Amino acid sequence: MELAGLSAVVTGGASGLGEATARALAAQGVKVAIFDMNAEKGEAVAADIGGVFCNVNVTSDESVDAGFAKARAAIGQERILINCAGTGNAAKTASRSRETGEIKHFPLDAFNMIIQINLVGTFRCVAKSAAGMLTLPALADGERGAIVNTASVAAEDGQMGQAAYSASKGGVVGMTLPIARDLMSEGIRVNTILPGIFNTPLMNGAPQNVKDALAASVPFPKRLGNPSEYASLAVEMCRNSYFNGEDVRIDGAIRMAPR
């Protein structure tokens, strides 16, 4: 798919993997709308790339609908959707305090929150974007659009405390092929990226010795991933029209240990 002149929506586009992808798409001549809850950063990135910022909470139908309406009024119906909005938490399924013997379990509201943001929020944006893409005329090969979702290597080798996060990202992986099959007759492709340990704003807050240890655990290259490397893969998934129904790790060959 020729990217120049197309329109795209990037969720979580104000920082990290989403920001890198928004910038990479803009560099290819794509008009980009950024969906995010951080208005200050989102407005700044949008201004820098000549795009539009939409204050969107992916857990809300009304917020997502309003975001798509604003984006489409500004840059037209998107042919590209990149889902990078997401978050995580950590808690054991059940645990015992060594000091007091108190037994706790993973709070179900905290579990549900991660599922709602990472899994349901992703599907919400996919379904609404795909419905909009159906209104577009077909391009070469009958193509109408391309969707890229973000999972995580935790979908396949989640660590201790990652039950909710791994479940949410595993769900994103699990729905990739069925959605691609749902949309195949309409010329809309769907792929998912499973990033390893990347140097995102979340990671920037970690102590340097922690980041060094994580980098050393990567087989090769022994460093954290750069957001631009994720963005490069996301752009190629959009550009390459034979890329469809795939879940691809980008992780330096790491396989996460139990803890």
TrEMBL record:
<protein>
    <submittedName>
        <fullName>SDR family oxidoreductase</fullName>
    </submittedName>
</protein>
<dbReference type="GO" id="GO:0016491">
    <property type="term" value="F:oxidoreductase activity"/>
</dbReference>
<dbReference type="InterPro" id="IPR036291">
    <property type="entry name" value="NAD(P)-bd_dom_sf"/>
</dbReference>
<dbReference type="Pfam" id="PF00106">
    <property type="entry name" value="adh_short"/>
</dbReference>
<dbReference type="InterPro" id="IPR020904">
    <property type="entry name" value="Sc_DH/Rdtase_CS"/>
</dbReference>
<dbReference type="InterPro" id="IPR002347">
    <property type="entry name" value="SDR_fam"/>
</dbReference>
<comment type="similarity">
    <text>Belongs to the short-chain dehydrogenases/reductases (SDR) family.</text>
</comment>
<keyword id="KW-0560">Oxidoreductase</keyword>
